[in-house]
Amino acid sequence: MQKRSATAREKLLSSLSHEIRTPMNGILGMAILLEETNLHPEQKAYIETIISSGKILLDKVDEVMANDTLEQSKIDQAINAVQQKNTDLRNCVEEVIDTFAVKASEKNIELLYDINEEVPLEVLTDNHRLHQVLTNLVEMVMADNPQQVCIGIHIIKHNSITTPPALGFTITAKPLDNAASIAMLLAEGKTLPDNTIGDLQNTAILGLAISKKLVEEMAGEIKAIDNTNAGFIFNIPLHAVTPLAGTTVNYSLKGFEDKSVLIVNSNIVSASVLAKKLRQWKMQPVVAASSKEALQLINEQSFNLVITEMNLPETNGIQLLANIKNIFPQLPVILLNPLNDVRYKEQHTIAKEITVLSKPLKHHTLFDNVLSSLRSKNTGQMQDMPANKLSADFAKQYPLKILVAEDNPVNQKWAIKILGKLGYEADVAGNGHIVLDMVGKAAYDLILMDVQMPEMDGLEATRMIRVCLSKQPTIIAMTANVMHGDRMACIQAGMDDYISKPVQLGELVNMLEKWALVITDKKLAAADTLKEW
């Protein structure tokens, strides 16, 4: 009876996972396609939030799949083997911040992050676990309604040669300035007791219990900071990854170094974080705490750029910028605007002359717009939109005849659009029977095969293909089935590889490239064999 109950529960969870992941693949897929178009910075920020929030939802689904009761035994079972992979720390942190953007805006909480210059672009770690820990801890710090929440990342170096450096993470109301203070807090901070997980009906305590487990599984430790700057601190081993050529973010303001920037912000912490980032880009920031102080400074010294908050004492940012534009019409200005605040649109004239960035502020977005503003000042033209990441040259480099086996119309459309942008004219089959009919009429190099389809599923279609065809295609499972054993079921059915929905654009491109090389090698080998005959 207990075994039947467990089996039924697993089937239910698998079905729920599939029902969520299938439409989410369409939502995220179309959002990613939209992100590739020319968007206003505000629109781009909204799309990034949609994408990152969708990913968070999927992480929560995965958490439920692995952790279907709140019992301690189930928490223990949820901690599987750590899966390390190349992780972009900045992207990870920005996704977490995006998750809380709306909630933070409603509660007037500033979301900030401060990543030390020494921290590498990519590290080898378990991205999913790190993401979950940061999400849980940010949520807990936000519960106390601080003026701001800051995620900080530093490299902790030890005096001992035998002790390797580590990554130190802080989630606090105020940023910690240096790695030394982080190391001290790790040594002296409040240890989270194991019996914290006793009251599992408390969501906050459960989140902390899971975070403690996850950090320890990543060979790190976590402490609570119990002082005026309450929050959490944890570390994990540092395994830096050398990025591939062309993948590093080039924060170079060549030709615009030493430019003077006026920051107008009454929040000392927020202004300090922004000023620090501008100094890292070799700019010269000056901070004003009010519009009155800003106007006084701007009349006393020369500035190349003004960055102001919307919410200021006495007046608001848009009124300040209108005053500045009256005095210095050519001076570039950037307005940092709270999410969903549309007051700036009421000032039609000034709204057309300024750059508006939605908060929470992302460093790469700020950099792009600072550079764009300075260039437009010099050239009289706005910087061109970045070129699309997708290129039809991909198909020229890796020619493939592709069949997409997918019954969901939205996911069909997304797959065709993505493959089209890569230069492929893919065919579509809505179920396994149609797949068999099409592979009998044409020789496909690669099939992206959904598992759950009507009439005949992807597993059965794959088994039939492996038996019936003399020339075998590469078959990649592209499925919302992500329960334990689903991958093995695909491989046992005869599939070559597996990619879970929602399909990440980069992951799909990497998968196509990986198997295109294999397919090309097979074709060359076959051609050489024919020549020998």
Distance between the termini: 63 Å
User: What gross morphology would you assign?
Assistant: globular
Strand count:
19
The portion of residues forming beta strands comes to 15-25%
Strand and helix layout:
Elements (H helix, E strand, L loop, with lengths): L1 H34 L5 H26 L5 H7 L6 E4 H11 L1 H6 L3 E6 L6 E4 L1 H16 L5 E9 L9 E7 L6 H10 L1 E2 L11 H15 L3 E5 L5 E7 L2 E2 L18 E5 L3 H13 L3 E5 L2 H10 L4 E5 L7 H11 L5 E5 L10 H4 L3 E4 L4 H17 L13 H5 L4 E4 L3 H13 L5 E3 L2 H10 L4 E4 L8 H11 L5 E6 L6 H8 L3 E4 L4 H28 L1
Parallel strand pairs: 2-4, 10-11, 10-12, 12-13, 13-14, 15-16, 15-17, 17-18, 18-19
Antiparallel strand pairs: 1-3, 3-9, 4-5, 5-8, 6-7, 7-8
Structural account:
The longest helix is centred in the first third of the chain and has 34 residues, at 2-35. The N and C termini lie far apart (63 Å). Strand 7 (221-225) and strand 8 form a beta hairpin. The chain has helices spanning 2-35, 41-66, 72-78, 89-99, 101-106, 127-142, 179-188, 203-217, 268-280, 291-300, 317-327, 348-351, 363-379, 393-397, 409-421, 432-441, 458-468, 486-493, 505-532, and strands spanning 85-88, 110-115, 122-125, 148-156, 166-172, 190-191, 221-225, 231-237, 240-241, 260-264, 284-288, 305-309, 333-337, 355-358, 402-405, 427-429, 446-449, 474-479, 497-500. The chain contains 19 helices and 19 strands. The chain has three domains: 1-53 and 388-533, Rossmann fold; 69-241, Heat Shock Protein 90 (2-Layer Sandwich); 260-379, Rossmann fold (3-Layer(aba) Sandwich). It has 533 residues and is an alpha/beta fold. Strands 2-4-5-8-7-6 form a six-stranded mixed sheet, with helices on both faces. Helices cover 48% and strands 17% of the residues. The relative contact order is 0.09. The chain is globular.
